[in-house]
Design a protein that fits this description.
Largest sheet: 7 strands, mixed
Protein name: Phosphoserine aminotransferase
Oligomer: single chain
Pfam families: Aminotran_5 (PF00266)
EC number: 2.6.1.52
Low-confidence stretches: none
Number of helices: 9
Distance between the termini: 29 Å
CATH topology of the largest domain: Aspartate Aminotransferase, domain 2
Strand content: 15-25%
Shape: globular
Function: Catalyzes the reversible conversion of 3-phosphohydroxypyruvate to phosphoserine and of 3-hydroxy-2-oxo-4-phosphonooxybutanoate to phosphohydroxythreonine.
Strand order of the largest sheet: 2-10-9-8-5-3-4
Bound molecules: 4'-deoxy-4'-aminopyridoxal-5'-phosphate
InterPro entries: Aminotrans_V_dom (IPR000192), Aminotrans_V_PyrdxlP_BS (IPR020578), Pser_aminoTfrase (IPR022278), PyrdxlP-dep_Trfase (IPR015424), PyrdxlP-dep_Trfase_major (IPR015421), PyrdxlP-dep_Trfase_small (IPR015422)
Mean pLDDT: 98
Length: about 350
């Protein structure tokens, strides 16, 4: 039986994507060859890469606006380093908002390149809110933020307006809500949440911000090189890119980002309403900053843990244990998680209340 998969990433993908991806492993495009055994330079794979890059821009409404979409490797973690390498001016500085483990990972890498100003941080309260009052230095090369904090369950509901390039790590909420992506100059995201399997990282960059840092950048870390080589500077992760394309096609067929946002909101509303209603549970973050992707919550009384854990496991739920830095539970409700799965979890929470 298929589990209700709340894993934080890698995570659930649409069932039809799993099926189509499996078919391509055996016989890709009726070619008599597996997608795993063809050249990345073959006509069929180049078409996959081209369509995936174009579909990203189409879904984000960024076509014809000076952006390029790249499928790279090294995870979002390598982008922590590529961003300052490509954008922080020699002798310049960069500004960062510290909203959690991943944001502080990005800050650590930036420090190796130059002055790194942390404009605000919610570390003092274990990252349970998004700081809102801060000033971005106008002489910084860029401002970096993390739209959704996968571990702590907070999400930025609005983004600052600034004259300097705006860079955002959208690893855990990309393609989940309709925002004006043209406000951003560089967006990156590991594929393994809303887009596909682990193994590729999406970078969407406005070309005009590149080539201005004054640094000598190794080719493999240079966004301009990847653009020139049409995201094939070296052998791309073909299967991860293909499976991402299948997920992007699924999203387009569903009606795009605006359509999935409505579904994501119903899922999040259903779960957060139960967390707030049920006296046995409490949320861990400021209500106005709650993530619609990762809901973090605790049992009021830890003595109920054993019973609750046995109940959700019996209901076919998987992957809701909280991250060790928050404890409790984390229900990740990425795009492919059906509303049905949230109903099952909410029913288990109600059942627990009846049993106590
Ligand atoms: N940023 C965010 C917001 C994440 O959630 C993660 C991973 N969960 C990362 C960065 C690191 O991504 P990767 O493992 O692809 O390097």
């Amino acid at each position: 039986m298929k589990k209700h998969n709340y894993s934080a990433g890698p995570c659930i993908l649409p069932q039809e994507v799993f099926e189509e991806a499996s078919k391509a492993i055996l016989n890709f495009n009726d070619s008599g060859l597996s997608i795993l055994e063809i050249s990345h330079r073959s006509k069929d794979f180049v078409a996959v890469m081209d369509e995936a890059r174009a579909l990203v821009l189409e879904l984000m409404n960024l076509e014809g606006k000076g952006y390029q979409a790249l499928f790279l490797q090294g995870g979002a973690s390598l982008e922590f380093l590529m961003v300052p390498y490509n954008l922080m001016k020699v002798e310049g500085k960069a500004a960062y908002l510290d909203t959690g483990t991943w944001a502080s990972g990005a800050i650590k890498e930036a420090k190796a390149f130059g002055e790194t100003v942390v404009v605000a941080s919610s570390k003092d309260s274990n990252y349970n809110y998004i700081p809102k009052e801060y000033t971005i230095p106008s002489d910084a090369s860029y401002f970096h933020c993390t739209s959704n904090n996968t571990i702590f369950g907070t999400q930025m509901k609005s983004f600052p307006t600034t004259d300097i390039p705006l860079v955002c790590d959208m690893s855990s909420d990309i393609f989940s809500r309709d925002i004006d992506f043209s406000k951003f100059d560089l967006i990156y995201a590991g594929a393994q949440k809303n887009m596909g399997p682990a193994g590729t990282t999406l970078v969407v960059v406005k070309e005009e911000i590149l080539g201005k840092s004054g640094r000598t950048i190794p080719n493999i870390l240079n966004y301009e090189q990847h653009i020139t080589k049409e995201s094939m500077y070296n052998t791309p992760p073909v299967f991860a890119v293909y499976t991402s394309l299948l997920t992007l096609r699924w999203l387009k067929k569903l009606g795009g980002i605006a359509a999935i946002e409505k579904i994501n909101e119903s899922k999040a509303n259903l779960l957060y309403s139960e967390i707030d209603r049920n006296p046995l549970f409490k949320g861990t973050v400021a209500k106005e900053d709650r993530s619609i992707m990762n809901a973090t919550f605790l049992l009021e009384n830890e003595a109920h843990q054993e019973l609750f854990d046995s109940m959700w496991k019996k209901a076919g739920i998987s992957g809701i244990n909280g991250h060790r830095s928050v404890g409790g539970y984390r229900a990740s409700m990425y795009n492919a998680l059906p509303l049905e799965s949230v109903k099952v979890l909410v029913d288990v929470m109600k059942e627990l209340e009846k049993n106590i």
